[in-house]
Write a structure and sequence with these properties.
A: 5-stranded parallel sheet; 20% strand; B: alpha+beta; 7-stranded mixed sheet; 5-stranded antiparallel sheet; rod-shaped
């Protein structure tokens, strides 16, 4: 079973993503900020990480930066409330960028796509 | 008989000469001309007919007699030549007197000699005596002391050496030049070449001429002095004019409306800017009394304010006002300053008015403020959009999920529905806060009891604190909240929200079994009485950035919260002329301090 790490500070969105991804048949672990997210990345060795851009403590960019220094290949999805990725070159290290939406169809298909290309 | 006729003819001729000399002298104001005419008259062959004449003038500052003019020749031969020439040309008296070349203008060696002479006026010498008694001194050094010619001076020892050297002839006559009591100089005449005797009659006529010459010389000197002083005065006037122009240029160049009134309210000076402001020409208003214009500085009467400034000897400044004149209100906005005008002796001469048109500045400030408001609005909108988006995503996401589950398994997850409801509730709360924060409405203010309000808030806060096992205590050492009415002027409802926000914030920051304390005291600051309330919790805010941004809208570290609680609190406190600050350290935790001014009739003693 593929393991997905969801790093998201908004509690309801975190649980929404978790429940939706579990329904898709993945194992899901969650973190409420970048610092916890990095700890779980090291400890749990996930197959894919989704990261919210705006978070307290360590934000999405800092986390992305730290992970990419150690793992160049792990699929990472960066998302935000609106299209902030273009403003920051650092986000280019992510595999995919998404704007947050209540419709999770695209999110779920991107997860599936990224995991299937990784054997 | 003949001799008598000749004597009278002689007299008549001499009077004629005197008359002519006086006429010509009166026609000029030039000292050199007067001197020349006088001496030529003395030496005119058909007149007094003296061989030589010398004139000295007194230099008052050096107390010396200075040689000015000598007419005559140095040798007998020269003398005969000149006289022959004059006889041949047959000059009339007037022609002769006006003759420039004779003794005036053309330097003779005799004349050159006299110009070098400067004789100190010494006591008991002939010059001093002559000027002192005002009598002619007839000198004849050839006489011995026993002759009966008493009026003659026979002793060379009383005569200054310089005179003896110059004249170089034993018989001469010295005439004083005195105008009223003013000593002007002397004339010396002699007959070196024909040796004619100088008679008593000669002396009388010479005295008459001398008096006339003296007054003419004196008049000329006075005239010259006057002219010189007039020139000096004209120069001073010119400089004053330049200075005045300079000052006026300054007054005209400054971009202010300036006017000056004296102590009786007459306008004594102003610049064109001011007269233009009054809609008049400068000459129309200068000299007028400002009482006649009915000028108001905002609501204040100009005359009364000028009176105040004169009375208090100080300065009055009116900012951002419009000027009313004769019932019309200015479109522009001004800063209006009235300041006392002192002269160099520190006496009060009047009042200066300085009016600065600040319309442009005010408009600029307004548009800047507007721009700032818009930019804040922009930032706020972005923040609001962001805050609203998260609950909307949750609601939408869960609604989709509920729908899908229902159609897939006919399953109905009550937790999902509760999440949707609580997120909708959160959205509502965010919007309420935004509406409050954005509203410009001012609550109704009245004198209210802050002790009651605080007790009220603490009672409410206890409910949520107890659930989380947190205690709230009052630590007021002066027991103000407990026992005293703290009266502040404000809105009960607004302040209640502010303090509930602070207490909730403290509860949410605390963990189980931690304490929250509320302290209050009365302080004196800036000559005002304040009540200071400190709300402390034990949690320490580690991140400096979090403290700096603690009152920034939507800057929140909490999972639940609108990000507007503390900004609203700050807004309410500041609306009440209060101050809010925060402090956090490891030992004491986090403390919010609120200072509010006490109502004026509060009778608490500190």
């Amino acid at each position: 079973m593929k393991k997905i790490l969801v790093v998201e500070d908004e509690k309801t969105i975190r649980s929404l993503y978790k429940e939706e991804l579990i329904d898709e048949g993945y194992e899901v672990i969650t973190a409420e900020d970048g610092a916890v997210g990095y700890e779980l990345f090291k400890k749990e060795n996930p197959d894919l990480i989704t990261i919210d851009l705006k978070m307290p403590n360590m934000n999405g960019i800092e986390l992305l930066d730290k992970i990419r220094k150690e793992d160049k290949d792990i699929p990472i999805i960066i998302y935000s409330a609106y299209n902030e990725f273009t403003q920051n070159f650092s986000t280019w290290a992510a595999s995919e960028y998404l704007v947050k939406s209540s419709d999770l169809t695209e999110f779920k298909s991107k997860v599936k796509e990224l995991l299937s290309s990784r054997i | 008989m003949d001799s008598t006729i000749k004597k009278y003819e002689d007299l008549l001729r001499r009077y004629n000469i005197l008359n002519s000399i006086s006429k010509i002298v009166a026609s000029t104001r030039e000292l050199n001309k007067i001197l020349g005419i006088t001496l030529r008259g003395v030496t005119f062959g058909n007149g007094f007919g003296f061989n030589r004449a010398m004139l000295f003038l007194i230099d008052e500052r050096a107390n010396t007699l200075k040689g000015r003019l000598a007419i005559g020749t140095e040798t007998a031969e020269e003398a005969w030549k000149v006289w022959a020439d004059i006889l041949q040309k047959n000059y009339s008296l007037e022609e002769f007197l006006s003759l420039e070349k004779f003794g005036n203008g053309e330097p003779s060696s005799f004349n050159q000699k006299i110009l070098d002479i400067s004789i100190p006026i010494k006591k008991d010498f002939i010059i001093e005596q002559c000027l002192d008694d005002g009598n002619p001194k007839n000198v004849d050094l050839t006489l011995n002391n026993i002759t009966d010619e008493d009026f003659m001076i026979k002793d060379a020892s009383v005569i200054e050496k310089e005179i003896l050297d110059l004249v170089n002839h034993p018989r001469f006559c010295m005439i004083p030049l005195i105008c009223r009591t003013k000593k002007v100089g002397i004339i010396i005449v002699d007959n070196k070449y024909n040796n004619r005797e100088i008679t008593r009659e000669d002396c009388v006529f010479l005295m008459m001429l001398g008096q006339f010459a003296a007054s003419s010389i004196r008049n000329t000197m006075i005239y010259d002095e006057l002219k010189e002083s007039l020139n000096k005065l004209a120069n001073v006037n010119y400089q004053i004019k330049l200075l005045k122009e300079y000052n006026e240029n300054i007054l005209e160049s400054i971009p202010l409306n300036v006017f000056v009134v004296d102590r009786d309210f007459y306008l004594t000076a102003c610049n064109n800017n001011f007269s233009n402001l009054m809609g008049m020409q400068k000459f129309e208003i200068i000299g007028r009394n400002i009482r006649s214009y009915d000028i108001k500085i905002g609501e204040y009467d100009l005359i009364e304010e000028v009176e105040n400034v004169l009375k208090n000897k100080d300065i009055r400044v009116f900012r951002n006002i419009r000027i009313k004149m004769l019932g019309k209100v200015s479109e522009s906005v001004f800063d209006f300053t009235l300041v006392i005008l002192k002269n160099s002796k520190e006496n009060i001469d009047g009042v200066i008015g300085i009016i600065e048109d600040i319309t442009k500045t005010v408009n600029l400030e307004k548009s800047l403020e507007e721009a700032k408001r818009f930019s804040e609005l922009g930032k706020l909108s972005a923040a609001i959009a962001h805050e609203i988006k998260n609950p909307l995503i949750s609601i939408g996401g869960y609604a989709n999920r509920i729908k899908r589950k229902y159609f897939q398994n006919n399953e109905f997850d009550i937790n999902n529905i509760e999440t949707v409801i609580s997120e909708i509730y959160r959205l509502e709360k965010i919007l309420n806060d935004i509406l409050y924060y954005g509203s410009g409405k001012k609550a109704v203010y009245e004198n209210m009891n802050l002790s009651l309000l605080l007790k009220d808030c603490i009672k409410l806060a206890h409910i949520s604190a107890e659930i989380n096992n947190i205690s709230i205590t009052l630590v007021s050492e002066q027991n103000y909240i407990e026992n005293t009415d703290i009266i502040v002027y404000g809105s009960y409802n607004s302040l209640k929200q502010a303090f509930i926000n602070l207490l909730n914030n403290a509860i949410e920051a605390s963990i189980s079994r931690q304490k929250i304390s509320v302290d209050s005291r009365i302080i004196d600051e800036n000559s005002k009485k304040w009540v200071e309330i400190k709300i402390n919790n034990e949690a320490f805010i580690q991140n400096d950035k979090d403290i700096i941004n603690i009152f920034t809208p939507f800057y929140t570290t909490k999972i639940h919260g609108t990000g507007l609680g503390l900004p609203i609190t700050k807004k309410i406190i500041e609306e009440h002329s209060g101050v809010i600050s925060v402090e956090s350290n490891f030992e004491k935790g986090t403390t919010f301090s609120v200072k509010l001014p006490l109502a004026e009739n509060n009778n608490i003693n500190t």
